[in-house]
Design brief:
Layout (H helix, E strand, L loop, with lengths): L2 H5 L3 H24 L6 H25 L1
Helix pairs in contact: 2-3
GO cellular component, one term: ribosome
GO molecular function, one term: transferase activity
Pfam families: Ribosomal_L29
Length: 66
């Protein structure tokens, strides 16, 4: 996921995307704990996507209030 793709989305779409990523992160943590996780790089990718979405959501809030 690229920042330009995230910036093009509305706040509601970002919330939905963030919720889905957090659910996926939760499932990946369980897979890692039980030894079933095959793609370990996905954990890092999800974590960064979550941070990217949260950052852009904050930028939109700040610009809207200014």
């Amino acid at each position: 996921m690229k920042a330009t793709d995230v910036r093009a989305k509305t706040t509601d779409e970002l919330r939905t995307e963030l919720e889905g990523l957090k659910k996926e992160q939760f499932n990946l943590r369980f897979q890692r704990a039980t030894g079933q996780l095959e793609n370990t790089g996905r954990v890092r990718q999800i974590r960064r996507d979550i941070a990217r979405i949260q950052t852009i959501m904050r930028e939109k809030r700040v610009s809207a209030s200014a």
